TrEMBL record:
Biological role stated in the UniProt entry: NDH-1 shuttles electrons from NADH, via FMN and iron-sulfur (Fe-S) centers, to quinones in the respiratory chain. The immediate electron acceptor for the enzyme in this species is believed to be a menaquinone. Couples the redox reaction to proton translocation (for every two electrons transferred, four hydrogen ions are translocated across the cytoplasmic membrane), and thus conserves the redox energy in a proton gradient.
Record's protein name: NADH-quinone oxidoreductase subunit N
HAMAP family in the cross-refs: NDH1_NuoN_1
Gene source species: Nonomuraea turkmeniaca
One CC-aspect GO term: endomembrane system
EC primary class: translocase
Entry similarity comment: Belongs to the complex I subunit 2 family.
Record keywords, A-Z: Cell membrane, Membrane, NAD, Quinone, Translocase, Transmembrane, Transmembrane helix, Transport
Matching PANTHER family: NADH DEHYDROGENASE
First-listed, main subcellular location of the protein, grouped into a coarse class: membrane
Residue ranges crossing the lipid bilayer per the database entry: 6-26, 38-58, 78-101, 113-130, 136-156, 168-192, 222-247, 259-284, 290-309, 316-336, 342-366, 387-406, 426-445, 466-488
Subunit structure: NDH-1 is composed of 14 different subunits. Subunits NuoA, H, J, K, L, M, N constitute the membrane sector of the complex.
Length: 497
């Protein structure tokens, strides 16, 4: 029996992998000249756009599946369904913004360009592959392919102590989370006797008997609960959820800003994709075990993130703790465990990506003239650079969920509706309180943008074309979502099919 491979289905990650090799070859053989950096960046950008084109084509053609068991076509390792394509599209569009930010970061020198783009593309290969993974082995490998290159990206800013420290912290945290998750995965495999998520679902929901039992209704061993808890804990590290959130601020501040943006959107999106696949696809039959855990983690995460964000004076650290709080909001609908709840989490994640990338683009622009990048450096930004100031103000208002940033308001409404209809009113109350807390630090930062500076504030020069394009793309998406929120719901509805 020969396993057939559908190359059209695996085209998005395959294109990224081929372009990653091409970037290394170009970097090795092209002469060291100023335009070489631009060529490598444009090559990387072209690869991402081509991969995105294949994702759109698969959406039109309803996807497909490959790497299936020859004797059972229902057991496949790679499935390009609506869920996969929505998350792959989100990752690739966010990658376009991160690459544009990288062009500005690399223009200053000091960072090897070829290695940077190669590692970035490797991360994207894992990020696009993970939502399509339908067995435990591919899921773990894809998750590590997302994580491992980020360690090196964080440390590529040589002779920078903060960057090295951030890389070490990220490495240690990721290794621990991977070990915990692998332990949980091994327990699930040992109980169910299969690595395929669909077969795991059948075993843990009682449709078919587990190995060693004669009938499906004989019950599962108590160690299943341990496996579920360990898997949830492993993914909680990846999305910076409480109690595994303490690494976020230090890593975001020490890493180059494009890497911080990548961690806050692309890495977070893949972490949530994996968590949804494990919980909703493989462990739906154990929902009574994991839904209370997710609800408690969600409440603690949004509360801790918002309270810690209120104390920050650094713009990047504030965005880091804000990102932790946003993880709590995204987690909240998953405590319901329904298909509609998955759509609400995905919609929030899409809208959050646009808002957060826009904020990071402006923060990167300001960091060119204010290396400390504290909130006081943004005082009077609207008067010094009207476009950058208004763009950041709009993104912060969106994150707070206030008009005219209606995108953030709609995102929170989507989540509120699902958790209230799901019967977890206490979680809705916690989210409402946290939304009010979040208003404080977003409003304080926004007020600084319009307050004239008392002294000689650093001037913001005309933004380079790449960072201007990144800022414009992210803010345009946030404006579009504010005007037409139904567009987000229509797209993310695919993820529930």
């Amino acid at each position: 029996m020969i396993q057939q491979i559908d190359y059209f289905v695996i085209a998005p990650p395959l294109v990224l992998a081929v372009v990653a090799g091409l970037v290394l070859l170009l970097d090795a053989f092209l002469p060291v000249r100023p335009h070489t950096k631009t060529l490598l960046g444009l090559t990387t950008l072209a690869g991402v756009v081509l991969s995105l084109g294949f994702v759109i084509a698969q959406m039109a053609g309803r996807g497909g599946q490959t790497f299936c068991v020859p004797t059972d076509k229902a057991l496949c390792s790679f499935v390009a369904d609506g869920f996969t394509l929505v998350f792959a599209g989100l990752v690739l569009v966010a990658a376009v913004v991160v690459i544009l930010m990288s062009m500005t970061e690399l223009a200053g020198g000091g960072i090897p360009v070829g290695e940077w783009y190669f590692l970035l593309l490797c991360t994207l290969v894992g990020a696009v592959t993970l939502p399509a993974s339908r067995d435990l082995i591919m899921l773990v490998v894809a998750l590590e392919l997302v994580s491992l290159p980020v360690f090196a990206l964080t440390a590529l800013k040589r002779y920078d102590g903060r960057s090295s420290e951030a890389a070490v912290k990220l490495f240690v945290v990721s290794v621990v989370s991977t070990a915990i998750m692998l332990f949980g995965v091994s327990l699930l495999y040992g109980i169910a006797g299969t690595v395929y998520l669909s077969r795991l679902s059948a075993v843990f929901s009682g449709q078919i008997p587990a190995p060693g039992t004669a009938l499906p209704d004989q019950g599962l061993p108590a160690v299943v609960t341990v496996g579920v808890v360990l898997v949830v804990a492993g993914f909680a590290f990846k999305i910076a959820a409480v109690p595994f959130h303490s690494w976020a601020a230090d890593v975001y501040q020490g890493a180059p800003l494009p890497v911080a943006a990548l961690l806050s959107v692309i890495s977070k999106a893949t972490g949530f994709a994996g968590l949804i696949l494990i919980l909703v696809t493989a462990l739906a039959g154990q929902a009574a075990t994991w839904t209370p855990i997710i609800a408690i983690i969600s409440a603690l995460t949004m509360t801790a993130g918002n309270l810690l964000a209120m104390r920050q004076r650094s713009a990047v650290r504030l965005l880091a703790w804000s990102s932790v709080a946003q993880s709590g909001y995204i987690l909240a609908p998953l405590a319901i465990g329904t298909q509609a709840a998955i759509g609400a989490s995905t919609a929030y994640l899409v809208i959050y990506a646009a808002m957060n990338l826009g904020a990071f683009a402006v923060v990167m622009l300001v960091s060119r003239t204010a290396p400390r990048n504290e909130l006081d450096d943004y005082r009077g930004l609207v008067h010094r650079s009207r476009v950058a100031g208004v763009a950041l103000a709009f993104c912060l208002v969106c994150l707070a969920g206030l008009p005219p940033g209606l995108a953030g308001l709609f995102a929170k409404v989507f989540v509120f509706r699902e958790i209230v209809e799901g019967g977890t009113g206490w979680l809705a109350l916690v989210m409402a309180v946290n939304t009010v807390i979040g208003l404080y630090y977003y409003a304080v930062w926004t007020a600084r943008l319009f307050t004239p500076a008392a002294g000689m504030a650093p001037a913001v020069h005309r933004p380079p074309p790449a960072i201007w394009s990144a800022m414009g793309l992210a803010v345009a998406a946030a404006i579009l979502f504010s005007i037409a929120p139904q567009l987000v719901l229509d797209v993310t509805a695919l993820s529930t099919r």
